């Protein structure tokens, strides 16, 4: 999302039928050694790749595709999926016109598509590269029924809060490490006449990120993984406690740009502008590492005007929740296999890393490829987490619950943002929706 699967600009995705042809122009030479494909071995081969990325993310991914085209001679067409990747692909598959490769932002969709026979297992050669370059947790995320289907090309660190340096300096606020300090900092900013937060509730997936960060730290890793698999119910006391904690922020309209109504309509790209644009209206926002790419599209500079701190801990340890987008093959052909082999290499990851707004879970990628220390630190946290990395919970569920606009968890948390007193009703609604999605 989601990812967010954090995906700035997804709400403005182009119409699903639009095809963006990419010229086979030169990409940056990363200096990293990747797979052994090359020598224009795919000259004349046409490949269609579907992905949710547009805006800054789309531009970063185009660098990857351009690098592949230069290396192999293939012609690649990028098809934007729109906000609901699973539905878009299902329509294309049932219509007999699936893309060759697709990037799936929800781990639960890999299992769904594998069960239906819509995606193909990775070749032994690609599996070898994945085992060489990726921690076991990323291999597990891409596995369904004992077979490796997904290659996680993009990761995301969602346990971050970005802030405008001047707003904090003017109010005399320091980056908070725990939730109590976070609430206190928000109150101090508000008292100083600065709206503390831009909450992008119009994109429901951003609210799931808030919940997951609070829950991961407060309830702990074991409970988080149990809830991710629906081994405990959403009516569990731990869920209700997390909702009550969120309400300490969400119940205060003065803490949110535009109040409750504004927060429920604000999209993530708008939230970035609200904090870092020419006329800022808030001091900070919770968002994944990709926010850095969108900040650079404003006049603010990451590392000086814009800084970041870890999402405040609500328990003994701070959370480290993230997401990832996995490449899967819908067609098993030479072009698809070579592309997957390329994506498994540090060389491919370096193409996007140099642009910024991107984290690779590929251990072979040299950290010097990231453009600044902020992004290197965030990427290192994901790599160092190894098998303790917690995947975005909403992405682990079927898309009907965790990844569909206007329904499931997205809608329940949007409603909770409007009425933070409805803890029991929200928990019951989440459980009802989750149970229904798990049965389908």
From TrEMBL:
Gene3D superfamilies: Periplasmic binding protein-like II. The keyword Transport applies. Keywords: Signal, Transport. Pfam families: SBP_bac_1. The keyword Manganese does not apply. Residues 1-26 form the signal peptide. PANTHER family: ARABINOSE-BINDING PROTEIN-RELATED, OSMOPROTECTIVE COMPOUNDS-BINDING PROTEIN GGTB. Belongs to the bacterial solute-binding protein 1 family. This is Extracellular solute-binding protein.
């Amino acid at each position: 999302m989601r990812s967010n699967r954090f995906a700035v600009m997804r709400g403005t995705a182009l119409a699903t039928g639009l095809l963006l042809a990419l010229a086979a122009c030169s990409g940056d030479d990363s200096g990293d050694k990747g797979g052994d494909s090359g020598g224009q071995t795919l000259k004349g081969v046409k490949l269609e790749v579907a992905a949710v990325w547009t805006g800054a993310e789309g531009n970063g991914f185009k660098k990857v595709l351009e690098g592949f085209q230069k290396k192999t001679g293939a012609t690649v067409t990028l098809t934007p999926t729109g906000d609901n990747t699973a539905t878009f692909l299902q329509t294309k598959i049932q219509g007999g016109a699936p893309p060759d490769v697709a990037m799936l932002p929800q781990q639960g969709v890999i299992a769904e598509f594998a069960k239906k026979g819509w995606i193909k297992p990775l070749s032994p050669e690609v599996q070898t590269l994945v085992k060489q370059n990726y921690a076991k947790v990323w291999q597990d995320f891409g596995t369904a029924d004992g077979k490796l289907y997904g290659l996680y090309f993009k990761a995301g660190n969602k346990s971050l809060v970005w802030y405008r340096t001047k707003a904090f300096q003017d109010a005399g606020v320091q980056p908070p490490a725990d939730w109590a300090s976070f609430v206190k900092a928000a109150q101090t900013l508000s008292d100083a006449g600065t709206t503390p937060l831009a909450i992008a509730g119009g994109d429901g997936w951003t609210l799931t990120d808030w919940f997951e960060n609070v829950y991961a730290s407060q309830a702990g890793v074991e409970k988080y993984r149990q809830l991710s698999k629906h081994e405990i119910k959403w009516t569990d006391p731990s869920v209700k406690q997390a909702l009550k904690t969120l309400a300490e922020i969400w119940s205060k309209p003065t803490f949110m740009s535009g109040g409750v109504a504004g927060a429920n309509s604000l999209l993530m790209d708008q939230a970035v502008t609200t904090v870092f644009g020419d006329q800022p209206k808030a001091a900070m926002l919770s968002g994944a590492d990709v926010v850095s790419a969108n900040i650079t599209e404003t006049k603010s500079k990451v590392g000086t005007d814009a800084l970041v701190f870890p999402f405040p801990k609500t328990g003994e340890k701070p959370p480290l929740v993230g997401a990832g987008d996995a490449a899967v093959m819908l067609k098993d052909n030479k072009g698809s296999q070579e592309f997957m082999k390329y994506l498994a290499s540090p060389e491919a990851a370096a193409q996007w890393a140099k642009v910024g707004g991107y984290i690779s879970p590929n251990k072979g990628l040299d950290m010097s490829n990231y453009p600044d220390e902020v992004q290197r630190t965030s990427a290192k946290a994901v790599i160092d987490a190894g098998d303790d990395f917690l995947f975005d919970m909403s992405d682990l569920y079927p898309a009907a619950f965790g990844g569909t606009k206007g329904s499931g968890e997205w809608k329940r948390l949007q409603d909770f943002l409007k009425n933070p007193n409805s803890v029991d009703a929200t928990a019951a609604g989440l459980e009802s929706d989750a149970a229904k999605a798990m049965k389908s």
